[in-house]
Amino acid sequence: MDEGMLKRIQGDPNFKKLVHERSSFGWTLAIIILVIYYGYIALVAFTPDLIAWKLAGSVTFGIVLGAAIIVISIVLTGLYVMRANAEYDDLTAAIIANAKGGKR
User: Fold this and answer.
1) Can you say how many angstroms the Cα of residue 5 is from the centroid of all Cα atoms in its chain?
2) pTM across the whole model
3) In the chain, how long is the greatest CA-to-CA distance?
């Protein structure tokens, strides 16, 4: 990639929008999952009786919460992928078209 194309890409308003939106959305999702994960660890550390509470047979509340964290992580990943496919791919295509000299 030559210097001119790099400057065109960096100066493109679509590029600036893409970087800002992707970064803020990614950090938002990361903070959500970190709060959930560390909240779970805090529950384990400070309320072990709650985590050990049996729901059915040998299935405890802690196991259900752990599985819920995994499911929530998958759902958040799916949300990111859906948004990437819906918005970020279009912005990337526009950036590429503008960098090559075309309009989109």
Assistant:
1) 29
2) 0.77
3) 66
